[in-house]
Amino acid sequence: MLELSGIPLLSQNRDRHPIIIGGGPLMLNPKPYEKFFDLIVVGEGENALVSILKMMKALKGEDRITRLKALDAIDGVYAPLLDKDRVRRLFVEDLDTSYHPVHPPIPVVGSIHNRLNIEISRGCGNGCRFCLAGFIYRPYRERSFSKVKELIDKGMRNTGFEEISLLSLSSGDYSNLHGLISYIRDTYKGTSVSLPSLKIGSLNEDEIGILGNIARTGLTFALEAISPEIRIRINKQIEIDGLVRNLSFLRKLGWRRIKLYYMVGFPWEEDDDFKNLREFALPFEKEGIDIILSLSPFVPKPHTPFQWLPMEDESILREKIFMVKRILKGKRVRVKYRDIETSIAEAIVSRGDERLSDLFEFLVRRGAKLEAWREFFNSELYNEWFNTMGIQKKEYLRGRELDEKLPWDFIDTGVSKGFLMDELRRAQNRQLTMDCYSGCAMCGLNCDAMMEHKAVNIERIELKPSASESEAQKSNQGFRYTFRYGKYGDARYIGHLETINLLLRAMRSAGISIRMHGKYHPMPKISLSEALPVGIESTCELIEIETDMGVLVYDKMVKEINRILPKGIKIIEFIKGSIPNMVREYSYILIAEKEVDMLLWRMQNKKGRYFYIWKGRGVKGLLTKGIFTRIIKMEDRRIHGIRVDY
Ligand code: SF4
């Protein structure tokens, strides 16, 4: 990207070029990337970005070094060329006053993360000793219940998404999750909720019950290890029996599949530690619930108590993964595992030093890209670089001495190195450490004030459906409306299902509540006219919806729907009633750049373009011939100036 933009790859070769800024979790060990960036932001960047932009504005016209020196003075920010010896990680103290987007882009075609994402909390107080995010996003901070509701309302008004994801490192720990999911259930009917991976035991029966009605995605739990011995060492305090006890309830609510994250390669692991997996899978099998076991090799990460541990040998990791597969053979368990070579590369890079910037340059020059996709990852290139440089890979994979200088030591996360060492010792001595929700283990951050929202959120606000909503739920009656909509220009390439999704989103965002049907996977109650082939425009497509009793559609709402719809899709009119009341005869107007020698009825010839009319089937065939530049479906009665009695 840099070279395509005409910007030198290395910071030292830039002059009047844009300032290239690095950020995100990788920059908690920035040495391998320093050569490529003019500026690095360490930690949460939303406030730093504002300071950087203000400074850039004030220094407009100044030379590069003057600008870099000024930017380097901003807290949590440094310019690698200037060699700062200590950089403190930034974190936002109050999530309520920090920026949260409520106008996300709405994709016109299906994509991943195709939903409204709302961050409910940041950081995690569980203290799992292997977890990078658990240490570099400390302390745990919650967005207040009222703020999260406000963000949901604004986001839904702007998007009408059919799914809301409540983001957090451990959503089940949010102190008023019950209130939040009840609010979504009662306010945005038919909208599903998804939660990222959950800590086992973090949801109560009530919460599972509500989720059972409004979650359309599967449940994912972070199990990490089956052996209690290993769970103590990694400080994973979960009660597996609680999950097992709830299985029949989960099944009753419609869940047939559960995903579990699992790790292999901890230094204390023995073959016996995997034995119980088969027994663990039995109750799932009994309840008819399939398990997807997602295995990842343990990668020791910087800034965690396990930063001094070695990465397990590649061949042993392979053996362990195959052992897990063998143990679970014949059970209703699908074992998926992360590629070991990629994990080894991850270990090298995450605990790497400045020498690795040469490796990245080498990879770029040799055409490496999109390496997170297995099919693009080429470990041979890595081996070639290590051989050429005479560096042993195991230098990066080995355990480190406690008094050894580490490449990331100059980054101050706020968690003291003494605390990390204590935590490592506690792991070696089989001792648990309390989580931040139960008390403070004195990690060095002194974060008392930031836990205030949690206390506020704990006062649960009970939400009940409003009188008219309860009435509507009891009643089987709803109102039917049919909308005639058009699709023009580039929008003709948006597929039928995607068009329907866009229309439903725009309707929801305009405040129209569409009725749902189906217990486990509720779907909107809608009917559609025949699907319009991709590539054909239309002025007469129909969608019928059923709304809850008491929700009337009026003109202002249609204006609002049209405001939200992408260019090229537009509601033209609506009637109260069903599709049959609106179905009319239609024809197609065909436009060509030159005269077409076909048995078609020619309308007129205007500005060198030839217009024809087609009625009946087979229009798709005309489209694929590539003769016509546009084909537009129209109601017969709307084709003016010509006779329509063929
Ligand atoms: S200071 Fe205490 S409560 Fe805060 S993150 Fe550290 S251990 Fe947890």
Structural summary, described in words:
The model is unreliable at 459-473 and 641-646 (pLDDT under 50). Among the domains are: 95-338 and 414-445, tm_1862 like domain (pyruvate-formate lyase- activating enzyme); 474-581, Pseudouridine synthase I, catalytic domain, N-terminal subdomain (Alpha-Beta Plaits, 2-Layer Sandwich), CATH 3.30.70; 586-638. It contains 21 helices and 25 strands. The two termini are 58 Å apart. It is 31% helix and 19% strand. It is globular. A hairpin with an 8-residue loop joins β19 (526-528) and β20. The strands form seven sheets. Strands 16, 19, 20, 21, 22, 23, 24 and 25 form an eight-stranded mixed beta sheet that branches. A five-stranded parallel beta sheet has the order 10-11-12-13-14. A three-stranded mixed beta sheet has the order 1-2-3, covered by helices on one side. It is an alpha/beta fold and 646 residues long. The protein binds iron/sulfur cluster. Iron/sulfur cluster (SF4) binds at residues 125, 138-139, 436, 440-443, 445-447.
